[in-house]
Design goal:
Length: about 750
């Protein structure tokens, strides 16, 4: 059609001519001014066949039109007539759920309502949907797009008929003798079907065609990590039965023999720098089995040293020399420094919700800065500590010999949620926790929380709002209001209050601030005496604090320290009057670098001390005293149930008229825990934890001691971080309240 139009136009205008007027009929998406700019000439120009041909080609290149014609309706007038492509008014999908449509298929289809209908784009979209199905192991998938036209609008109906899924029934490694089949399969994307394959972390055997070409390389890498430098792995051979859609996958493997490391050297090509001192710290060492993963790690370590002071494009090239007779290998690392590099630009991508500035303010390198690898890695850790993203990567894009762009690539995770949790204990009965919160409100970095906790003995309502970087500065501001009702074994306490906190960030990891709070307490005791006094008390307090945090992740840190120190000063009113210090420490260490396994060691500790008169119930009321127990201090014991009791002259624990122990509460307390965390189901972000807790509390010294041990399952679920805890008290007493099982939702591990 387009060729015919151009032929007719050129036959009419086969000679140069001057037109006094140029008209555009049928335009809707382009203005006449824009069309004039596109054709490259205006009224009064000398127009010949060549210029008209180029003008029509330029107009077609805008991809807005199905037909363009040019004629001379009257003397001295050149008229362009356009037939525009229709606009997509609606897209409906058949053969998928709404959730699948919105979360999975629409992004792949890539065509939206309001866009121009283009057959080429439709065909490309259909191919993408078919490719998606094939990547998931589904074949004979049919995708049809049926258009319905109405004036200049088109309605699309997309029919998606997913085909049958090919299941890998068996995987064979012909020639593999040194390793078990299960060890080889772990490295592949295409695994044979396993029992309970539907469970997270298990394989359902679905063929992933797009990953199949890379599985041979993955298998070869596994052998190279075990020292088998002569290994040969053939391309995968897939035999599928399309009657039942089961397949057999085979690999031909020639293993060879493993090699040990003979010697390691490091040489520098273009600078007089001696890096041989690094050899003793490398993972690959002489007289040990060669491991390509360790060699790659050593390349990174040498690069870290070479890349300081702006040498971003330093190169470390390992030269491997084999002695096939002795089965030894020598590795020579050749280092080339190159030029000093500066940052040209910082680009943020992947943040559909979070504002660019929220991410940029955590990047410690700005345009014009000298490249610094330490700053780059600390920037990545700072962004991960926000807790807004499932993954964070900072890519380095070279733009010249002396400049680079930093591309911050994030994958957002859910930061807002409606959480409902709970548990059961003999003390509190059924415990229900519910809250609505968002750590990244509208992508602004603000956080808010609306929460309620309720049980047979407890009720708590709380609302809070925090701006962690006021006007992108180093200052933060937060407010909270709360109302609690607590029924202990010996009293009922109602508290209403609020607080405001202002803090400032110092450097990259330090923060200091001040919290002001006001509370109003009402105590009602079942069996009042001179210690348990009914009535109201008020408290006004100021709490200066200082904290340090250089951990590498928000939910599951694998390195770093989280340390805080605070001093609560109460006594700015006539009632409560005391000073309480609190010191907290959390230490994380991942063993992956040492043992090539994602084992995490965690140590947490907290010490609290109140400078108060333990006998003055008004100035230091029981509701403000120290208690241990619960998921955050001493697992296995009911929250707030471990504290000194009143005793009679013979040392017997005093009880109220209901037979429950009468708490005094503590003025000094210490608790700590040791944990080891290992992967349980890596694909589902699920981990298994064993722990030991120890706590001590007292009125003047740490003379009341309790401990426990247990296990937990941690899962970063679609609802948020979820933890199931089983705990066993070790040295509990008859008067203690035990809680063997609890779970939490929304708390960092």
């Amino acid at each position: 059609m387009r060729i015919i139009v151009l032929f007719i136009s050129f036959a009419v205008l086969s000679f140069a001519k001057i037109y006094n007027q140029i008209r555009f009929d049928g335009l809707a998406r382009l203005s006449p001014q824009t069309a004039t700019e596109i054709i490259g000439f205006s009224a009064g120009a000398n127009i010949d066949e060549k210029r008209l041909n180029e003008a029509i080609r330029r107009l077609f290149a805008q991809e807005y039109f199905t037909d363009i014609s040019a004629d001379e309706p009257s003397s001295g007038v050149l008229r362009f007539t356009f037939v525009e492509k229709p606009v997509i008014a609606r897209i409906t999908f058949k053969g998928m759920s709404e959730t699948e449509r919105d979360d999975k298929y629409m992004p792949v289809f890539g065509i939206k309502k309001g866009e121009i209908y283009d057959l080429r784009r439709i065909e490309a979209a259909k191919k993408r949907l078919v490719a998606l199905a094939q990547s998931e192991g589904y074949y004979d998938t049919l995708v049809e797009v049926e258009p319905t036209y109405e004036e200049n609008r088109v309605y699309l109906e997309v029919t998606y008929a997913k085909g049958s899924q090919i299941t890998i029934a068996e995987t064979r490694f012909n020639g593999a003798k040194s390793f078990d089949k299960k060890d080889l399969q772990k490295k592949l994307a295409n695994k044979e079907a396993q029992f309970m394959g539907w469970f997270p972390g298990r394989s359902n055997g679905a063929l992933r065609l797009l990953e199949l070409p890379y599985d041979s390389s993955r298998l070869r890498d596994f052998y190279l990590s075990k020292g088998y430098l002569d290994v040969e792995v053939g391309d995968p051979f897939l035999r599928a039965d399309f009657d039942d859609y089961f397949a057999t996958l085979e690999y031909e493997v020639i293993e060879g023999d493993p090699y040990d490391v003979d010697k390691i050297t490091i040489g520098v090509a273009d600078r007089k720098v001696d890096l041989t001192y690094l050899i003793q710290d490398l993972k690959l060492q002489p007289m040990r089995r060669f491991d390509i993963e360790k060699m790659r790690s050593d390349v990174d370590k040498i690069f870290e040293t070479a890349a300081q002071d702006g040498y971003a494009f330093a190169r470390v090239s390992p030269d491997i020399r084999k002695d096939e007779r002795k089965r030894l290998v020598s590795v020579d690392y050749r280092v080339t420094y190159g030029q000093i590099v500066r940052i040209r630009n910082v680009i943020v991508s992947g943040n559909n919700r979070t504002l660019d500035r929220v991410i940029r303010r955590e990047v410690f390198l700005a345009p014009g800065d000298l490249y610094n690898l330490v700053d780059l890695r600390e920037s990545k850790a700072a962004i991960r500590r926000l807790g807004y993203f499932e993954s964070v990567e900072i890519e380095e894009r070279r733009v010249s010999e002396s400049e680079m762009d930093l591309i911050v690539v994030v994958k957002e995770t859910s930061t807002g949620s409606l959480m409902v949790g709970g548990g059961y204990s003999t003390y509190d009965g059924v415990i229900v926790n519910a809250s609505i919160n968002d750590r990244n409100l509208f992508g602004s970095g603000f956080s808010y929380s609306l929460g309620v906790d309720t049980s047979k003995r407890t009720r708590r309502y709380e609302v809070s709002l925090t701006n962690p970087r006021v006007r992108d500065s180093a200052y933060s501001l937060s407010f909270s209001l709360y109302d609690t009702h607590y029924e202990a074994t010996t009293y009922i306490r109602d508290t209403q209050g609020g607080s405001a906190t202002v803090s400032r960030r110092f450097g990259r990891n330090w923060r200091g601030g001040l919290t002001g709070s006001s509370t109003n307490n009402k105590n009602e005791y079942d069996d009042p005496d001179d210690f348990y006094v009914n009535g109201r008390t008020t408290k006004l307090s100021l709490t200066p604090f200082l904290s340090f945090d250089n951990t590498d992740d928000y939910f599951v840190p694998r390195s770093g320290v989280d340390l805080s120190q605070s001093v609560e000063i109460a006594g700015f009113d006539k009632d409560e009057e005391y000073t309480r210090t609190s010191t907290s420490l959390a230490f994380y260490y991942g063993f992956n670098e040492l043992i090539d396994y994602d084992l995490i060691f965690r140590y947490r500790a907290r010490f609290q001390y109140a400078d108060a008169d333990i006998n003055d119930v008004k100035k230091y009321p029981i509701g403000s005293r120290l208690f241990l127990g619960g998921t955050r201090s001493l697992r296995g014991y009911q929250s707030g149930s471990v504290a000194p009791y009143r005793k009679d002259a013979s040392g017997v624990v005093a009880k109220d008229k209901n037979g429950d122990p009468r708490y005094i509460g503590g003025a000094i307390a210490f608790n700590n825990s040791v944990e080891f965390s290992i992967p349980l189901v890596e694909e589902a972000n699920m981990r298994f934890v064993v722990f030991y807790d120890f706590g001590a509390i007292g009125e003047k010294k740490l003379d009341m001691r309790r401990s426990s041990y247990g296990a937990a399952i941690e899962w970063i679920s679609p609802m948020g971080p979820l933890q199931f805890i089983w705990a066993v008290p070790i040295d509990d007493k008859p008067e203690d309240t035990i809680s063997n099982f609890e779970f939490t939702l929304g708390q960092k591990f």
